[in-house]
Design brief:
Distance between the termini: 40 Å
Number of strands: 45
Helix content: under 10%
Shape: globular
Length: about 475
Amino acid sequence: DVDVDLATGEVWVPDTWNQRFSAFAADGSFLGTWGDRGNGPPYGQKYPRGIGFDPGLRRLWVPQHAAGTIMRYDDDLAYADTLGFEEERGGTPGRFDKPLDVEFHAGKAIVTDSATNLVKVLDADTGSEQLAIPQKANGTAVDPATGDIYAADPQTDKVFVYSSSGVLLRSFGSRGSGNGQFREAWDATIVDGVLYVTDRTLSNVQAFALDGTFLGKWGGYGTGPYQFANPSGISHDASGRIYVADTENDRVQVFDPGTPRTPYEWTKPTATISAPSAGAAVETTAHVEISGLAADNGSVATVEVAVRDQATGKWWDPQKATWSSTQKWARAAFWGPAPTVSVSWQWGFPGAVYGHSYRAEARAADSWGNVSTPAGVEFSVIAPLPADVTPADTSVASPAPGAGRGRGLRIRRQGCRRGRCFGAGHLLRALVGRRRVGGIQDRAHGLPDVGGSDFHGLDLFLHPARSGQLRGRGHGP
């Protein structure tokens, strides 16, 4: 699933199998992720498959598909409460079995439940149930003008339209692969009077007038631009751009209905690798971050990365997390303002082994499928330095013992590790009893710690009962 904060443009996505949900800025840059396996507050997740951001109360709703609950978070991601009970799952008021999709309209939350075949209407503030519509649906859309609910039914391959009070108004669609037909209608959204519906089996998006008249479609199974692999959720932002959760491709594709696709052109995009630099020795205990830039005269659609072990000649297979004799490409995350004529990209290589050398290659494709010439860089991986457990040494050089006290004391300190000395160069203040000694300035000097150990901090102690004696204590990370 996917949803967009209409006020900020932030994009929210549940990551079902990783038991978490993530946020991205309007340009696609990563903001953060929350969650781990469980079903307890604040962030325990149990297969979250849906997500919804309430634009009125500015709350995030995260349905827990395997727990029968919905966890709610405030605008600052503080845990608010949980609706439903895992021990009392079902379709009775206030209960869910497998909650999936959440939409909002006029202070109401519309929740689908894929197990009870109910579409429930709740008070978005209190969470109390106001209406239950007996309708099978994975996702819904709400007409902002009328409040009518459009429910995508994957069993009958129809879209059912209900009034805000739950009265069935009409339905349209049938089973098949032709125009206006479905094989597994999944989710829907309404933008500027047009209904867009995803189909997981056909891997496409179809557009309809609100009376059910077919308007057009795009998609088809694949990994390229305008292609999908079992898409699920669909949403839109305040500008009318459409966001599609391209499930099996592990990405969100964004489309602008107001901008027609450009005529075909043959200009290839470009891709560069910024990190690691050529010949770099990367010190790591985890994955190697590979990043760079890509550009196109129209729009960048995908960025991919491949990594070869120089000793074995084999390529990393990101799907199987092993090595292959044939070149395999991993899709990198990229972000940039729309249209994406210039983007930044990043991918984490998890197969690095100490002492090995690698070659990374990156390529970009534009919206017409033109592919850039691969950019390449070679690097090696070295083991990190052992953990530093040696305490830091600290000395106070000024003022001298017995010197007068007062404001504006200048403190010169240095911390040393393994023969190297470092300073932080920040302003320190100390409170002594009820008397403030202000303007104590750190004027430490020294070489940066190029070996990997850091001087973490300095504690200062001024003892009023001991003739103004000043003591210092340095400590490492």
